[in-house]
Specification:
single chain; 524 residues; alpha+beta; Transferase(Phosphotransferase), domain 1; 3 domains; four-stranded mixed β-sheet; 43% helix; globular; disordered C terminus
Length: 524
Amino acid sequence: MSDIHKHFPKVTEEQLNQAETEAQQEVQQRVRQLADFEQLDLTQLESDDRIQAELANSEQNLTLSYLQYQQDRERYSPHYKDIFDFVQGEGLDDTFFEQSVTEGHPFHPMTKTKLGFNPEQVITFSPEFRQQAQIIPVLCASELVTQIHPTHSTISPEYTQWSDQLQNELSMQNIDISRYEMLFLHEWQLEHFVQQQYPELLQQEQLVPLFQHAISARPLLSFRTLDVPQFNAIVKTAVNVQATSAVRNVSPASIRNGIALSEAVAQIYAEGDYRHSAIQRDLAGAFLNINKEHANKVSYLLRERLPETTQAPQTHHLVCASLITKSFITDQHILIECIERLMERQNLSFETATTKFLEQYTTIILEATYRLLLEEGISLEAHMQNSTIEIQDGLPMKIYVRDFGGVRLFDRDVDIDGSTGLITDDFDELLAVFSHSVLYNHLFQLIRVLEQYGYEPSIGYYIIREQLRKYNDRYQPQIDLLQQPTFRIKSLLKMRIYEDGYDYQHTYVNNPLYEKGATTTCNG
């Protein structure tokens, strides 16, 4: 952290010490909470060098995030009313909300772990610092690349125009385009993995990085997923860095499954009159096929961008995780700024506006997930990092779901890779994905934040319970979630300690929606 003043020139030693202390306290508090929650012995964690290294890295990187938040607060808070006023006043688009999530995951202690990045790379490639990363187009000998690109999938006109222009330029340089396919690689991955792993292919020009055609891109909430305005598309890249608890690669199976499943669910939404639900579809992808072990490290996925909202100043697309992060304008959660806008527009009290917000939000997300589960046997992993909510004048209007890696579904006529374990014949598996991602990691997190501002959590749980009951009355599922005193969620710390032990990866928690159970606040 010695060159910290290079990036934060005005930071004082006192501010740096405070940020370091706050980061350490936040990470250690999360460790204690999860250890208690998962019934882990803290001394076991303290003697595990690997875990301690991950935690130390998370603390170091969270310190940087806190410094960025403080710098933004000092610079912008005197000039704007709330974060929406800031976005409009600074001429930003809604990508900003992907880059606003200061603390990352709401309760994972390794929330900021990025093993493999030094502090300067953390600042360059992490979203909250709002820097530009470079995507390098790489020409690859055709026989070395497997393209996954369904003919019915439409890639943006901007991407097609860029591709045609590049082909014309390369043809003028007497490069035979027909010999090559294109891969898009994160600049870090090209330098730190590809150039070291495949020097012969580079020397033989079977891999040709086009550095002069590098594409500027903006890191999104998942830092290796990048917004590319030039393509009017999103590019998900492989980066061989451990972030949170996993190395962030892009497997061939995830490319294939994402394209097939996102298209299938988008079609179900369209044909089934899911009026408030949409899919941010995966469109195409490719990978280097010469080494099965490394195919997931030299790969990419192209995803569609969300519709622009810049022409509708009172409408925004917020990645749902941004709702439970603090705004550097007001130092309140962005969720509260939404509700305050709703209060102002409709002249409502805080409690009335909050209840209205939560009722509509719950209606929207349950349509997109629980109705789909009951009607189609497909359970989406729609936690806050995988979902984007459309907010108009403070009120939720529509949800977009992305990323199909954690989906579970009954077998159906969709061309997916069965080796990934997505297909199940157990309704309980579908319900477990729903309860973990949609209830515990999404709706309950909204209630947890609202409680901090005086909103009675039992009202929030009542709203969710009654909407679930209506679906259950209509569809009569084989397991009624409202009659289950507990449900299963992932054990985040145990998953780090016992990496291969499936039995250790889940914890059963009290279900605050249980009809006969006491209402409790769920805070991880």
